[in-house]
Design brief:
Low-confidence stretches: 367-373
Mean pLDDT: 80
Number of domains: 4
Distance between the termini: 34 Å
Radius of gyration: 46 Å
Number of strands: 11
Strand order of the largest sheet: 6-8-9-11-10
Shape: rod-shaped
CATH superfamily of the largest domain: Histidine kinase-like ATPase, C-terminal domain
Order of helices and strands: HHEHEEEHHHHEHEEHEEHEE
Structural class: alpha+beta
Helix content: 40-55%
CATH architecture of the largest domain: 2-Layer Sandwich
Number of helices: 10
C-alpha cells in the first residue's frame, strides 16, 4: 500500500461508493416504510364508508373487501386505529375499527365491525419491497464500484503522470550522470515537468563537460612546466634525485587525472566476457611485474561489460591490494544469478570511518606515511567508475583477521 497510485485509487473509490451508498441508504429509509398514515388511513375510511353504505346489498369486487366473523389478528397499531375511528365518526359512521399488523408478512389490515356484527377486512396500502431485494442491492453496489474504479484509475493516471515522468527520467540516468531527454507533450503540468527535467539535464551536462575540460586541461598544461623543471633538475648537483622524484609524482597525478576524464568520456561497447579467463590473465601479468598475487577458487562465469574498461578496473583493484596489502588472493564465485569477485589482502586495512571515502579521487589513508608508494590516489575512483558503468558494484570491507576485502559483483550472463 506504499504506492501513491493505489492509495489515490482506493481513496477515490471509497469516496464515490461512500457518497452513493449514503444517498441510497437515505432513499431507502425514506421510501422503505411506505406512504404515511395521513394518506392511507383516510383512503381506508372512505372505502369502509362505501362498504357500509352498500349493505345489505352486494359489495363490488373492486373494493377488495373480505367479510369475516371476527377481526383480523395481529398486533394492533393504536395510533392508526385511533385515527381511523376518528375519521369514521366524523363521516357519521358509528362503527368500531381496528388497524393491525399482518402476522406473516409486511403490511397492515384494517377491520371494521359492520351493523350486522360482521367484520369487513381491507388491506392498508403498502409498498412491497422488490423480490430478492438483497440481490438487487448487491448488483447496484457492484455497478457503482465498477464505475468508480474505472473513473478512479483514469483520473489517478492523469494526476500522477508528472511523477511517473520524473521517476522514468531518473531511472534512465546513464553512467555519465546525464538525464535522457523527456518529450514535452501533454497537459500544462506535464509539459512544465518535462521542461524542468530537460533544463536540469542540460545544466548537468554543461557542468560535467566543464569539469572534465578543466581537469583534462589542467593535467595537460602541467606537462610543459614539468618538462622544463625536469630539464633544469638534470643540471642540479644537490638534491637532484629528490627533484626528479617529485616531478615523477606530479607526472603520475596529471596522467591519472587525464585517464579519469577519459574513462568518463570514452566507453567501450559491452559484450559477454569470460571473467575467469580475464582474472587468470591479470594474475599472470601481475606476477610477472613482481606483485604478490595468488589465485583461489575460480568458478566459470561470464559477465556483460567492456573488455578494456573491465580489465583496467580489475587491474587497479588488484594492484591496490598487492601494493598496500603486501599480498592478495583472488576468488571468483557464482551466487545465484550473480558473479562475485573477491580480492583479499593482508595489509592494515582502512579505518571504518574512512571506508566510504576510499573511492574518492586522490584519497590516501595516511599521506604522510604512504609517500613512498607511487600513485595519485585515483586507482579506486577509476575502477568504481568503470564497474558501475556496466551495472556492477564494488565494496570495501575490513577482514576480521586483518586486511582489506574488495568485493565486485556483476549480473552473470
Amino acid at each position: 500500500m506504499n504506492s501513491l497510485r493505489r492509495r489515490l485509487i482506493l481513496l477515490l473509490v471509497a469516496s464515490i461508493v461512500g457518497v452513493v451508498g449514503l444517498a441510497t441508504a437515505a432513499v431507502i429509509s425514506v421510501r422503505g416504510g411506505g406512504p404515511p398514515p395521513e394518506l392511507t388511513v383516510p383512503w381506508v375510511a372512505q372505502q369502509m364508508e362505501l362498504v357500509v353504505r352498500l349493505l345489505p346489498g352486494p359489495i363490488p369486487d373492486v373494493l377488495r373487501v373480505k367479510l369475516s366473523d371476527h377481526a383480523a389478528g395481529g398486533k394492533v397499531d393504536r395510533p392508526e386505529t385511533a385515527m381511523l375511528n376518528d375519521i369514521l365518526r366524523r363521516r357519521g359512521l358509528d362503527v368500531l375499527a381496528v388497524v393491525s399488523d399482518k402476522a406473516d408478512e409486511p403490511g397492515q389490515l384494517a377491520s371494521v365491525r359492520l351493523p350486522d356484527n360482521r367484520w369487513a377486512i381491507m388491506e392498508v396500502p403498502h409498498i412491497t419491497p422488490p423480490r430478492r431485494e438483497w440481490l438487487v442491492l448487491a448488483g447496484w453496489i457492484s455497478l457503482i464500484v465498477a464505475g468508480a474504479t474505472a473513473v478512479s484509475v483514469y483520473f489517478t493516471a492523469v494526476l500522477i503522470r508528472p511523477l511517473e515522468m520524473l521517476e522514468a527520467a531518473v531511472s534512465k540516468i546513464g553512467s555519465d550522470g546525464m538525464l535522457a531527454a523527456v518529450p514535452e507533450v501533454g497537459s500544462a503540468e506535464v509539459k512544465a515537468t518535462a521542461h524542468a527535467l530537460n533544463q536540469l539535464s542540460s545544466r548537468l551536462k554543461t557542468a560535467m563537460e566543464s569539469r572534465m575540460r578543466l581537469v583534462a586541461a589542467a593535467g595537460h598544461d602541467l606537462r610543459t612546466p614539468m618538462t622544463r623543471m625536469r630539464l633544469r633538475a638534470e643540471f642540479l648537483d644537490d638534491e637532484r634525485d629528490k627533484w626528479l622524484h617529485d616531478l615523477d609524482e606530479l607526472d603520475r597525478i596529471a596522467d591519472s587525472a587525464i585517464r579519469l576524464v577519459r574513462e568518463e568520456v570514452n566507453q567501450d561497447a559491452a559484450e559477454p566476457l569470460d571473467l575467469r579467463k580475464m582474472v587468470g590473465d591479470i594474475e599472470a601479468e601481475m606476477v610477472s611485474l613482481g606483485h604478490a598475487v595468488s589465485i583461489g577458487h575460480l568458478d566459470a562465469v561470464s559477465v556483460q561489460a567492456g573488455a578494456l574498461g573491465l580489465r583496467r578496473a580489475l587491474r587497479n583493484l588488484i594492484v591496490n591490494a598487492a601494493t598496500h596489502g603486501k599480498a592478495c588472493r583472488i576468488d571468483l564465485a557464482v551466487a545465484g544469478s550473480r558473479a562475485v569477485l573477491t580480492i583479499s589482502d593482508h595489509g592494515p586495512g582502512i579505518p571504518p570511518e574512512l571506508l566510504n571515502k576510499a573511492f574518492e579521487p586522490f584519497f590516501r589513508v595516511d599521506p604522510g606515511r604512504l609517500q613512498s608508494i607511487p600513485g595519485a590516489g585515483l586507482g579506486l575512483a577509476i575502477a568504481k567508475e568503470i564497474i558501475e558503468r556496466y551495472g556492477g558494484t564494488v565494496t570495501l570491507e575490513n577482514r576480521k583477521g586483518g586486511g582489506l576485502e574488495q568485493t565486485v559483483v556483476f549480473e552473470a550472463v
